Each structure stands twice: as C-alpha cells, then as structure tokens.
Amino acid sequence: HPPIPVILHPREGGCFRERQTIPLWGDTVTRGPRAIEGDAFRWRIDGKDVGRGNDLWIEAPAAGTHRCELVVKERGGNASATVTFETVGRTSRKR
C-alpha cells in the first residue's frame, strides 16, 4: 500500500506575508514499521517543485491564493496531499 501523506504546515486556509520564510512540514502514515526516507517527499507550490524532504523552509510566493502539494513516492506507490493558503502583500506605511 502507498504511504498516506499528511501536511502539518502550512495549514489549510493559512495566511502569510509574501516573501516571508515559511516552513513546509509533512509526514506519512504507513502500514507496518517501515520509515519513509526524506528524499521520498517532494513539495510543489502552484504546480512547481520547490524542494524535497519532510521539513523544508521556503520563501512565501507573491500575494494570492496558492496550492501546496506534498507528493510522497515509495515502493508501495505514489500519494499526495494538498492544502490551500494565502499570501498578502507587504504594505508600506507613510509617515
């Protein structure tokens, strides 16, 4: 059976500032005691690869709504999980 990926961060509906450094944290649920190696975790934001591993830090994308996908490839097959989050622009204050 393929692993079942779980996105721990960002959470569904989360909101961040654009260009803020944010973590991507994920894990899997598997049958049996086998561990999933970090290279099996692939992160995508809006369909573009942003890195590998179950713990990754990235710069948040430009303002808007974004789709974050965690794809886990393992000998039992591939599986993915997705969440949607938002980023907002930085506002400058005039004095």
Could you characterize what this model shows?
- The chain has no helices and eight strands.
- The radius of gyration is 15 Å and the shape is elongated.
- It has a five-stranded mixed β-sheet, with no helix packed on it.
- With 95 residues, it is mostly beta strands.
- A hairpin with a 2-residue loop joins strand 7 (64-74) and strand 8 (77-88).
- 0% of the residues lie in helices and 59% in strands.
- It has strands spanning 4-9, 15-17, 21-29, 41-45, 48-52, 55-59, 64-74, 77-88.
List the helices and strands and how they pair.
Blueprint: E1 4-9, E2 15-17, E3 21-29, E4 41-45, E5 48-52, E6 55-59, E7 64-74, E8 77-88
Parallel strand pairs: 2-8
Antiparallel strand pairs: 1-3, 3-6, 4-5, 4-7, 7-8
Features:
single chain, 95 residues, mainly beta, 5-stranded mixed β-sheet, 3-stranded antiparallel β-sheet
User: Strand pairing plus helix content: what structural class?
Assistant: mainly beta
In the sheet with the most strands, the strands line up as 2-8-7-4-5
Which residues sit in consecutive blocks of at least 5 with pLDDT less than 50? Answer: none
Largest sheet entry: 5 strands, mixed
Estimate the strand proportion.
over 45%
Question: Using only CA atoms, what is the Rg?
Answer: 15 Å
Short description:
It contains no helices and 8 strands.
